[in-house]
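Write out the 3D structure for:
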Amino acid sequence: MATSDDLFRLIKSLKQSEKRYFKIFSSTHVKGEQNNYVKLFEAIDKQEEYDEKAIIKKFKREKFTKQFSVTKNYLYNFILKSLRSYYSGKGVDSKINEDLESVKLLNYRGFYKRALKILKKTKQLAWAYEKYYNLLPILEWEYGIYSVFYSNNKIQEYKKKYLAERAYLFELIENEHQYSLLADQAYDLYRENMVVRTESELNKYEAIIKHPLLQDVELALSYDAKKTFYNIWALYHTIKKEYLSAFSYDKMQLELLEQNHNIKEEKIFYYLEISHNLLYNCLELKRYEEFIEIMEKVKTVSITKQYAEKLSFQDHAQMFDTIHGLFMDYHFELRQFDKALEIVPHIRKGLKKYRTALEDETKIHLYFKVSKLLFYMGDWEESLEWLTKID
């Protein structure tokens, strides 16, 4: 059962378009008590911090407050239901899953040709977006329908193609898996020791970086595998404080993503992740022109509909930190303190909007940045106010 905090955080994570859809969805899917759920939804949404006593007091005349835990759980699940409906068919995964449901229904009714026609398009889509795990059931459905619908000779001809395609698919999946394991090892070490202090600690990274798969990017067979290859090398150079080399590998990641337009649109959060690392390294290397160039691209993504709609609330929180947090660092380094001060209201607003999505460490960094700027500018009282936000 969803807790009060779960419900509050879920409502606060919704974008305005999702909130509008919820209200429309509830009007067509809930009879009788629809207005109560919408009113409860709106009341919780207006709160800055969840206050259940205030909610119950506000709706004390309503029947749903007598079993409030049941009502909250229903509302939580109903919001999820509206989100599933809102995003139905909007993403590649959703489109593939819906196509497979259609194939299942058509196959059950004996419409084999129509089912195969859908499978052909769905398979092309899955390959284009490197949705390898989605391809497994597509191939199984295709082979199953061929086995029922076609003659033995045609089945045998198709079977050779099917086995070869499936073998290649498993090779790609295994290749991604091996790179993922290497990345997990590297990041486990990084979480243990974010700064390498001894030769023994460095040797642990060296053991990973000497792995045969990390000697040539061409051994990585897919976008995800190549991205992981560059990511591991960027991390390795970062922990050695070789920021120019780390910057080069992050740029390779960004260029790789720019070359794969389908994947960029589908996995735009990768773009934010890579851009954040690049921007940080630009500041470390004092490459200020490149910093502005990359930052402008990030800002463009944030307002471009085809990308912004695919970003989660968590992704938007990350974008807020990237744009405003790193821009403040940029202005501070260049001693452009007045421009840095102009960012403070945006940080205050963003901290309020994304407080349920930002990690505590990110919040602390932002509090400290603002406090440091205000102290430097002589506004010691407000500087102390921001500093006391750090628990």
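The chain has 20 helices and no strands.
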